[in-house]
Every structure is written in structure tokens, then in C-alpha cells.
Amino acid sequence: MFHKDIKETDPELYLRWLQYGVFTPIFKTHSTKDRRIVRYPWAFPDHQFMMRDAIQLRYALVPYIYNAARANYDTGVAMCRPMYYEYPETDKAYNVPEQYFFGDDIIATAVAHPVDTVTGLADRSVWLPEGKWYDYSTGHLYDGNTELNLSYTLAENPFYVRAGAILPMNPSSVKSLQVPCDTLVLTFIPGADGLLSHYEDDGETDAYIDTYATTEISKNTSDKTVNVKIGARKGTFHNAPSRRAYELRFPATMPPTSVEVDGKFPAARHMELRRHVASADRIHRDAPRRYRCRSRAPLCRRYGRFRASIRQATDIPSLPHTNTRIQGRTEPQRRKLYYAP
């Protein structure tokens, strides 16, 4: 975390080390006993919030990592694996040692050069195999079978997700992995339809060998309509939750014009237009349900993406039974939108 000719920790290098560590099986800030190494994020006030974001990203990806760990147990295929494992017939796959697969759907890499003092950007070349790949840091969807020269700020931790992948994630409210979470975030990567078999066990004992549960989730798109189906949980385990909240996120997508749950409009508290993602938030179910989101044309630019949160009225005060209407703006890019049941 420091250069050989410098006697103190380089905060930028430490930040990039943390960002890289997100995509490893074990995420720890262990190091040698060299006293020049400082591992406390708050010791670097200009970088601490970006370091915090890297740690929060790791917490968010834990369900995806847990799925990958189960796949490793079942198949013997490592969670982190070189590109040529997936593309053994492609010569380029043997010549990109600074990138690798992290699970089945993520290509991870690391920014290994300092940012330019003028532009604030650091270069990173990456080879993307066949198909389409979504740059999670910037919101760009790239065609594969190509090599790209990209640039990233200090705050951007580049990784690339297979188009159509469904990433199971934790909400930002998770602060400890020892406390059960009743909300599962499903991030639907644009560019293709997708399937996910979400794995769960008690997280404490070796009963996972034959006592676990899976949930089948699918996404299909047709004529500006996205249909998401979340199946009933198969199997069970000790202390399995009887109910669950789902947060559905649709990155690089404009907010939907309407949302249906099992063919009905859910009563919703609000829709907030924010940057980054469009999501239907905290939709409850205790039986298989079919979700339909009719959206406007996708928006896949580096800036100008939005987040739309829709909360079902099962956990909020009842709303007036009115027709769909939009309240006046309370601040730029924030609106309140009410749905009639």
C-alpha cells in the first residue's frame, strides 16, 4: 500500500487495493507488520468515503458471492477463475492476466495506475468476450468480442456484468452479516433476458450439505414490457424466513409508466426519480407472483440515469383511492407518484 521510495501509506493505492478486494473470496485488510501501513479508512479524509463505498459494495454483493460459493462446492470450479477457463478456444483469453471471472456473471479487474492530475481519470484496458457486457460503474452497455481502453475516476470501481444477469444483492441497510436480512435486492442487468437460481442456507452450520433452499427468478422482455417472475422457494433450512421483501432494480432504464403485481396495480407510496438505477422497491410476497413493468425507452448514458422506488402499501399507511397522479416537484428530479390499487 506504499511505494518503495515512500515511507507512508499511499491513500490512492490503498483505495484501489480495497476496490480490488471486493472481488476476492475473502475480503480483509490484513497486511504485514510494517509500521508504515495504515489500514484505517478514516485516516484518509480525502478518500474515506470512496473506501466506504468499496466496503458497502462488498456487503451488497454477499448474496451473489454466497451463490458462487455454493457453485464452487457443487462443481469444484473456483469462484475466481481466469478468462481462458470460460473461453479456452479464444487466444485473447490467455493474454489478459489483469482480469478474471468472479462467479459466473461478473468480470473483475483493477485500476493499477494513478489518476491523471488534470483529468482525474485513470486508464484501464479490458477485453470483453462475446455477448454484451454492462459496466456497473458507469452504466454503459458494451458489445463483446472487443478490447476497450476506458477511463475511471477514483470513485469508480470497474466491473462488468453479463447482459441479462440477475444479481442477488443486499440492501444498503445491511451493516452486519451476522444479522438476518428480510429484503433481497434483485438487480436485472439490461441487454438480454435472464434466469437466476438463488441459493440460501442457515449460514451457520454444515447442514448446508443437504438442507438448503433455492428460489427461481426469471426476466423476459417483450415490446417495452419487462416481466419478472419470482417462484416459490423450494426446500427449507433452519430459521428460514416465512416472508420476504424484494427490491427490484433495473439499471440504465427509464422509470416505468406502470407497474403491475399479479396483473394488478399495487398501491404505492411514492416514486422517486434519482440517478443510478430504476427499481421497484420492497414488493412483498408469500406465494409465486408475476411482476410486470412497462417502461419507456432505455437510457444508457454515463450520467442521467434514474432510480425509481415503489413501495407496496402493505408496510405503509393507506393511501387515498385516487386515480394515478403526479404531485408537484419538491426538488429537482424528485417527484411523488401515487398509484390507485
Write structural notes for this entry:
By secondary structure, the protein is an alpha+beta fold. It has helices at 11-21, 48-60, 62-75, 83-86, and strands spanning 80-82, 99-102, 106-109, 122-128, 132-135, 141-143, 146-152, 159-162, 166-169, 183-188, 194-200, 213-222, 225-230, 234-235, 244-251, 256-261, 277-285, 289-295, 325-326, 337-338. Strands 1-2-3-8-5-6 form a 6-stranded antiparallel beta sheet. Strands 11, 12, 13, 14, 16 and 18 form a 6-stranded antiparallel beta sheet that branches.
Number of helices: 4
Please tell me the overall pLDDT. Answer: 79
Which residues form runs of ≥5 with pLDDT under 50? 268-341
**Which value, in Å, is the CA radius of gyration?**
21 Å
Q: Report helical residue fraction.
A: 10-25%
The major beta sheet can be summarized as: 6 strands, antiparallel
Ends distance? 55 Å
H/E element sequence? HHHEHEEEEEEEEEEEEEEEEEEE
What kind of assembly state do the chains in view correspond to?
A: single chain
Structural class: alpha+beta
Q: What spatial form do the alpha-carbon principal axes imply?
A: globular
Strand content: 25-35%
DSSP, total strands? 20
Going across the major beta sheet, what is the strand order?
A: 1-2-3-8-5-6
Secondary structure elements and pairings:
Blueprint: H1 11-21, H2 48-60, H3 62-75, E1 80-82, H4 83-86, E2 99-102, E3 106-109, E4 122-128, E5 132-135, E6 141-143, E7 146-152, E8 159-162, E9 166-169, E10 183-188, E11 194-200, E12 213-222, E13 225-230, E14 234-235, E15 244-251, E16 256-261, E17 277-285, E18 289-295, E19 325-326, E20 337-338
